[in-house]
Write a structure and sequence with these properties.
By secondary structure, this protein is an alpha/beta fold. It has helices at 2-5, 9-19, 36-50, 55-64, 77-90, 94-103, 110-128, 135-157, 178-189, 203-213, 229-240, 256-261, 269-277, and strands spanning 25-26, 32-33, 164-170, 192-198, 217-221, 245-248, 265-266.
Length: 283
């Protein structure tokens, strides 16, 4: 069946499980038996997806044997692209995945691409394949492609004549760097140049970078609470040397008391815009 349709076997199984298309008969031993109608259904499903429908919409049309129709003109292009990206992840096709993610660069601003494509895809990957044995492989593949595209978008979005500077880094044991680019895109819209220090930015590294770059803002990301939050937060506060600093991420709420006691501020998506609106460049 995979050879006849060009659809990988694991994708066929996934479509069958998720959408009920195709529905092969089973032998007594549990093996799938496909016929010509199943082949035609899969080929039509692929054609509808290539025409722009999401996998779920295409499967619904195939199951109801509706005539092929182009996607509605008012369909949200970001949602559509997210579905195409998830289909590529579902097929475990790295080349297709990168091609679909890079389509996002043509849709809108860096902030829109990050918030309407990258973030929803990350959440969906965790939700769709959390019980799968391949979940970690899919997550790593997706994260690496998104990080690569975010880096390209970051370089393109930096202002030619910045009005200020910001340093962005992850807590000492933090590996998830994608949220840093989300903040960088927001800062770029306000004319600020960001310097991304990346994963595992220790207080010593942050202190050295702050001395050299003299930032107007330091932003730190944390998704897993550190073992000694009080002591580590105090070290970060000292590294900022009196400059405004904020902390965000999944574990930031657990550090609120320590961060605020050290002169920093914990921010979520709703609070971030207010912080950035109040930035006043020193230079």
């Amino acid at each position: 069946m995979a050879e006849l349709t060009g659809v990988p076997a694991n994708t066929l199984r996934s479509w069958e499980r998720r959408y009920g298309v195709p529905e092969p008969r089973r032998t007594d031993a549990g093996h799938r038996q496909y016929d010509d109608d199943d082949v035609a259904q899969v080929r039509r499903l692929v054609a509808l997806m290539e025409a722009g429908l999401s996998p779920s919409e295409a499967a619904d049309q195939v199951a109801r044997a509706e005539p092929a129709a182009p996607p509605p003109v008012d369909r949200d292009p970001y949602h559509l692209l997210c579905e195409r990206i998830l289909a590529a992840i579902d097929a475990f096709d790295p080349d297709r995945l990168e091609a679909e993610v890079r389509r996002a660069l043509l849709l809108g601003s860096s902030v829109d691409v990050y918030e309407k494509v990258m973030v929803p895809v990350c959440y969906a990957v965790g939700e769709r394949w959390e019980d799968s044995g391949e979940a970690m492989a899919r997550e790593h593949l997706t994260t690496e492609v998104l990080r690569s595209v975010a880096q390209d978008l970051y370089r393109l979005s930096q202002p030619a004549r910045p009005v200020g500077r910001a340093i962005l880094g992850c807590f000492a044991d933090e590996l998830h760097v994608l949220p840093l680019y989300g903040i960088a895109f927001r800062l770029a819209q306000r004319g600020f140049r960001s310097f991304v220090l990346g994963a595992r930015t220790t207080p010593a590294v942050l202190a050295a970078a702050s001395r050299r770059l003299q930032p107007d803002l330091v932003a730190l990301s944390v998704t897993v609470a550190p073992a000694r939050p009080g002591a580590l937060v105090a070290e970060y506060a000292a590294a900022c040397a009196g400059r405004p600093w904020i902390v965000g991420g999944g574990a930031a709420g657990a550090l609120r008391e320590a961060v605020e006691a050290a002169g920093g501020r914990v921010v979520g998506p709703a609070e971030l815009e207010a912080v950035l609106s109040g930035l006043r460049p020193a230079r």
